[in-house]
Each structure stands twice: as C-alpha cells, then as structure tokens.
Amino acid sequence: DAGVIQSPRHEVTEMGQEVTLRCKPISGHDYLFWYRQTMMRGLELLIYFNNNVPIDDSGMPEDRFSAKMPNASFSTLKIQPSEPRDSAVYFCASSGPRTSPGELFFGEGSRLTVL
Amino acid sequence: KQEVTQIPAALSVPEGENLVLNCSFTDSAIYNLQWFRQDPGKGLTSLLLIQSSQREQTSGRLNASLDKSSGRSTLYIAASQPGDSATYLCASVGANFGNEKLTFGTGTRLTIIP
C-alpha cells in the first residue's frame, strides 16, 4: 500500500482565497483524521470520520473550515476564506477498525502559507 | 478531557547512552498508546503501539511500557545513535465511541551528540 496520500504538499495563497486540501487514506481503513500542527499549539485534531461519517468536529476552528468524506477513499479539508493565522502543516491520518490494534498512519502533510 | 504531557521538552545525550522519554496522561480509559517520531519538515512515523491490555512493546533498540493505573508510558532507547535525533511524541487513543481520537503530547526533542 502507498500509505496515506496528501495533496498538495505545499500551498502558498493570499488571504481571502479558498484552499482545498486532499487526502486518500489507506485502503481498508475506516477512520480518517485531520490534524493541524503549528509551533505554538502543537498537533491539534480538527475533525475525524468513521465510515465516512463525521464523528467529532469540535476541533474545527470556525465556520471557515469544512471537511467532507464523500467515499471511503477520499476526504477534503476546505478553508474559505483563508487567513494568515491558518498557516500551518495539515496532516491527514487513517487507522483500521476497532477489531485491529488501531495503529495510526500519517500522510506527509500539506504545508499551507497564507500571505 | 484527556491531557497528555511529555517531559522534558528537549533532551541532549552523548551517542551510545541509553535514555528514557516520559509520557503521562490523565484519563486511563484508553484504547491504545502510540509513540511517534517526527523529523524536521516531515510527517509522523509510528514507532510502537501498546494496546490497553499490554504492558510493553519492543522493536529493535526501542522499548515502550504502559502503566494505565499511574497514567504513564515510557520509551526506552538503547545505545543511542545520531540518527535517533528527532522529536518523539506520544499519543493516547480514547476507548469510548465518539472519543476515538489521538490526543498528543507536545513532544520531546531529542538530540544525540556524536
């Protein structure tokens, strides 16, 4: 398996623009997580899905952020409109069902810079 | 709400020494606990996973232990090498439905001095 795949790896945009980050989880995994990492706040969970259904989105900063998982092999995280304080590395991760050990696998991340 | 703490935030040791990284958590209702490694500018790589029913796991020079009753986990690295330099993070997974997320500590930045 190719692992968790994220795109783009780097994104530089101007304040007010829409940003869409994409994630392909490992095949067969039914949990998908979106995390954000900054120097100041470390790793923060934004939202997670189980079987394509959002379970906990309490970490989503505000209405400018939205996430979807239309099928088991694809998820998006959208920021509209983007602001400079959204600059961070956004990680997607996936894990198997609760009958498995539950090891979490991370993608390489999408580094977002909002000017 | 689960809180995970890692102390110290940074650690420097000479090459060849054995070392221990510490992780503590407040809620013992965990499904598992994982240790990750993160190199600068990279994603997180899973090192070891300990399920809630286990006491320890070993992989090569790494040994992780778990004591749920005291809310502690340790990562032991034997015969440290410069290539071990990285940030090490521990994270717990909640056991209950609706709380299956990983809660991360802030990490320990490890430097192995050649």
What does this structure look like?
The complex is a heterodimer of chains A (115) and B (114). In chain A, a hairpin with a 2-residue loop joins strand 5 and strand 6 (53-56). Chain A has no helices and eleven strands. In chain A, the strands form two sheets. In chain A, strands 2, 4, 5, 6, 9, 10 and 11 form a seven-stranded mixed β-sheet that branches. The mean pLDDT of chain A is 92. Chain A has 115 residues and is an all-beta fold. Chain B is an all-beta fold and 114 residues long. Chain B is 0% helix and 59% strand. Chain B has strands at 4-7, 10-14, 19-25, 30-38, 44-51, 56-59, 62-67, 72-77, 86-94, 102-104, 108-113. In chain B, the strands form two sheets. In chain B, strands 2, 4, 5, 9, 10 and 11 form a six-stranded mixed β-sheet that branches. In chain B, a hairpin with a 4-residue loop joins strand 7 (62-67) and strand 8 (72-77). Chain B starts with a strand and ends with a strand. The model of chain B has no long low-confidence stretch (mean pLDDT 91). The chains are: A mainly beta (115), B mainly beta (114). Chain A binds chain B through residues 31, 33, 42-43, 45, 48, 50, 55-56, 91, 93, 98, 101-109, and chain B through 31-32, 34, 36, 42-46, 49, 51, 89, 91, 93, 98-104, 106-107.
